Amino acid sequence: MRAFAVEAGVKPATLLRLAQRLGYQGWGELKDAFIDDIGLRNDTYVSKAEKLIAKGTQPQLYDEVFSAHQANLAFTQNENQQEMEQAVTLLDAADNVYICGFRASFPIAWSLFYVYRLFNRQVSLIDGLASNIEVFTRELTAQDCVLLTSFAPYSRESLDVLHAAQQAGAKIIAITDSPVSPLAQAADCTPCYSLSTVRRSSLSGLWHGAGRMLTGNAGGAPWP
Fold this sequence. Notes:
Layout: H1 2-8, H2 12-21, H3 27-37, H4 45-54, H5 60-79, H6 81-93, E1 97-100, H7 106-117, E2 123-126, H8 133-137, E3 145-150, H9 156-168, E4 171-176, H10 182-186, H11 200-217
Parallel strand pairs: 1-2, 1-3, 3-4
Helix pairs in contact: 5-11, 6-11, 7-11
C-alpha cells in the first residue's frame, strides 16, 4: 500500500479510506478484487478442479456449469463487438495472415486456421512442430497480420512469435485473457474473453463468431 501511495502522491491512510468508501473492509480486500478483475490471480486448472471436487455431486452443479457457459458467452459478446470488427478489418487488409496458439490454446488457433483457409490461401498456421517457428517468423513483413491466442501462463513460443511480429512491424491481433497480458500490451487489436472458471465456452464462442464474420466478409458461404 505504501508503494501505491508514493506513486499516487498521497498518504497510505488515504488509500485505506478510499477502499472503505468503496465498500471494502480495507486495502487488502480492494487489492484482491482488482487482481481478480484484471485476471492476475494465479488460479490454476488444478486448484479450480479441486474446488469443483469439493462441491461434491450436488444436483445444482449441472446447472452451475451451464450458467457459467452462458455468462462467459454473454461477456464475450458484450465486450468484443468493436474489437471483432477491427480484427476482421486487419485480417482482410493483410497480404499474409499467420495464426498461432500453443499448448492449451492450439485448438483455438487450429479452428481459426481451418475456417479461414477455406476461402483464403494466404494464411499459415504456426504450430511449432519440429521447432519450425522461425520458418514462419523470418517471412513476416509490415504488410502481414499475426493472430495469437494465449492465456496465463503465457507460453514461451507465443511470446517468441509476438516479438518477431513486433520487429517486423506486422499487425498483431491478440485473443487473450486480460488487457494487461503481454500479448495485449503489444497488440493492435485485443479481443478478450471471460476469466471465469469455464473459459472454453467463451473461447469457442469467440472463434466461432470470428469464423462467421470472416466468411461473411469474404462473401463465402455461412459457416455452420
